[in-house]
Amino acid sequence: MTQQQIIVKPNRHNTVRKAEQLLNARYSLSQLAIKIITTVISMISKDDEDFKLYVLKVQDFKELTETKHKNPYKQLRDACDELLNKKIEFDDGEDVGFMLTRWIASAEYFAGAGEIEIEISQKLRPLLLQLKGNYLNYELGNILALRSNYLIRLYELLKHEYNKVVRYKSNTTAVIHEIEIDWLRKQFKIPDSYLFKDIRINILDKAVKQFAEHTDITVSWKVSRKRVKKVLAVEFTIRANDKLAIHLKDLRTFIEYMRKNYVNQDIWIGQGMILSISPEGRIYDKKTAKEYDKNKAQRVWEKWYELAKEDKMPIFNQPTLF
Q1: What is the mean pLDDT of residues 147-175?
Q2: Would you give the DSSP letter of residue 3?
Q3: What is the dihedral of CA 263, 264, 266, 270, to 10 degrees?
Q4: Is the predicted pLDDT of residue 318 greater than 60, yes or no?
């Protein structure tokens, strides 16, 4: 049977779902390759029984990730080459066995249309489809601004640990999770040339800063185990990040936040109107397709800002999957 083709329209609010085994697998991908495959994964419905052929419009992806490159075609081709040729290793020990596989089975670029068609490896079906129990889920937007492949992987690991605890203890304010440095090196394929100080500077400390700025969790860390001078493990403290509060410090920051995260969404519905934000950042009515003038838009921004501070903006109070 021919696989159904689906056009991937990247949306930072799409939900990414991955089985726990995939988080603990051993692999290394570039930042761009991880973002491409994660964007595609975010288009898989929780009810899907099989993969589709996912067609990603390159311009949509570039806008979503704010990617800038002198030769985007080469950058895209290199990322797809990684997804096709870099293996994922699942090793459960001599008594259980191992599996080696790839992320994708094929990638085809259509130059005239500016699209790329991606076919996910069938070996990943049980790790991405019909998931049950303790699987990872988060909004795609959390990883799009992270500037390192290691940070994306670390975010997924820590987000999953946080989700597992709060799923059963909803009043939890902080989750503690320890990671052994040797395990981190092996699973993330961190080069042997990286000393612990390099891991600290380029992964751990950057995670503290970038997670707070771009994701729905915040983390702090400390050394939890040492042998003489060698660091054996670090302990993370993970908390929910009230991102909205960061963007409520003033009206200008709030408007920038809304323009970045809620383009073309139904922000306000009522009185015969559906208000949204155009890609150009202007407020418009979806029913009439008319933009508001500057003065009228200003009044709407001010009203939304006051409602957001009172936690009364409907779009911020929709049920989530977490």
Answers
A1: 92
A2: P
A3: 110
A4: no
70 token code pair:
């002198």
**262 CB neighbour count, 10 Å cutoff:** 16
The predicted model scores a pTM of 0.77
Burial of 26 (C-beta count, 10 Å sphere; 0-12/13-18/19+): middle
Q: Which of 216, 223, 178, 177 is nearest to 197 (CA)?
A: 223
End-to-end Cα distance, the chain: 35
pLDDT tens track for 141-154: 899 989 999 999 99
User: What DSSP letter does each residue of 68-134 carry, written as one string?
Assistant: --S-HHHHHHHHHHHHHHSEEEEE--TTT-EEEEESEEEEEEETTTTEEEEEE-GGGHHHHSS--SS
Please tell me the predicted confidence (pLDDT) of residue 94: 66
Beta bridge partners of 233: 180, 225
Tokens of 277: 């934000």
Looking at the predicted structure, is the pLDDT value of residue 228 above 60?
yes
CA distance 105 to 103: 7
Helix 251-261 × helix 294-309 angle, to 10°? 100
Angle among Cα 313, 252, 63 to the nearest 5 degrees reads 85
